[in-house]
Amino acid sequence: MQKFELMATCASGIEALVGKELRELGYEVQVENGRVRFEGTIEDILKTNLWLRTADRIKIVVSEFEAKTFDSLFEQTKKVDWDQLLPIDASFPVEGRSRNSQLHSVPDAQAIVKKAIVNQLSDTYHRRTRLPETGAVYPIEVAINKDQVQLTLDTTGDSLFKRGYRIDKGGAPLKENMAAALVLLTSWKPDMPFIDPVCGSGTIPIEAALIGQNIAPGFNRNFICEKWDWVPAEVSEKLRDEADAQANYDVELDITGYDIDQNMINISKRNALEAGLGDVISFKQMAVKDFKSEKLNGVIVANPPYGQRLSDQESVRKLYHEMGMVYKPLKTWSKYILTSDLEFERFYGSQATKKRKLYNGALRTDYFQYWGKPIWHHEGKREVN
């Protein structure tokens, strides 16, 4: 089977997580800014689309070269054997971006790459007339950074965060792959209690449950490459069957999402049902200040409102203070809170064990981590009530 140069793209700050996920799937990786490179076959393309929880897309790196003039961009793009990737009827939209480069006009770069591909395909397929572009879609991107050009083919289609279970999302939703990253950055294991005190539309508890039951995040959706004529349907079916067999649907999980708004709890329940996790997660209406627990060794993950607008700031900081008060007695629990409010610790009332810089969309946020001190049984097991 042909091997491709591949890359998994991701949000800034979680590249190491994507790299770890790929290594756990058995790949050798090179972690770079906003992406992780690896090699693989068609089967690997489908497998990584199906299994990666924190990545955005899987792209084939078609060609990389330096270009400082449009002539150079045209000639080097035309050199590529596009006919090996694109059938005669392929629809191939070209997206572009450019940073710190002499070729800074993105529309021109896109047009030139498109023209070069059309020329190569027309020569190879002996076409005198226009290419039909009526077939499957092959999204191409030209990315230019410091005069280095990278031509890629996107195998994913809709970004991987679109798992397919979110029917409704409410106010300021967290992307599913970011929610998965927040869970994977904690010490949580499936035998520990897990709480999201401000669960909104339920994304963090749902992602925790998918991790806890080892369910492939891409299981309920399709990828654009599955429509390509050189991607065999039986490979896709085989990988989905294997993913189904690897899921542990019987594992007992203790995952709860709370929100002050009953409407959000209803939305969470609908989304969990759509994800096939309706009976796995509990959702309850409750304000943060009313939370208490006798359980031990739990994990709290929260993405509270950030108070970006000054009018919201006071109520949000009051919420941070309530969190600090309510979580203080939970000595064996670890708490992880994402916010863009750099003064969070002051209002929460104590300094984080560790902070990690993450980007929630374009917004710079910090993940404040407060590590608990778990209590162990004498046999070396964690005590769980």
Walk me through what this model shows.
This protein has helices at 15-24, 42-51, 70-78, 106-124, 176-184, 203-212, 233-246, 262-274, 310-327, 344-348; strands spanning 4-9, 30-32, 35-40, 57-66, 94-99, 140-145, 148-154, 194-196, 255-259, 281-285, 299-302, 334-339, 354-360, 363-370. Helices cover 30% and strands 21% of the residues. A hairpin with a 2-residue loop joins strand 13 (354-360) and strand 14 (363-370). It is of the alpha/beta class and 385 residues long. One of its GO terms (molecular function) is methyltransferase activity. Keywords: Methyltransferase, RNA-binding, Transferase. Residues 44-155 form the THUMP domain. This is N6-adenine-specific DNA methylase.
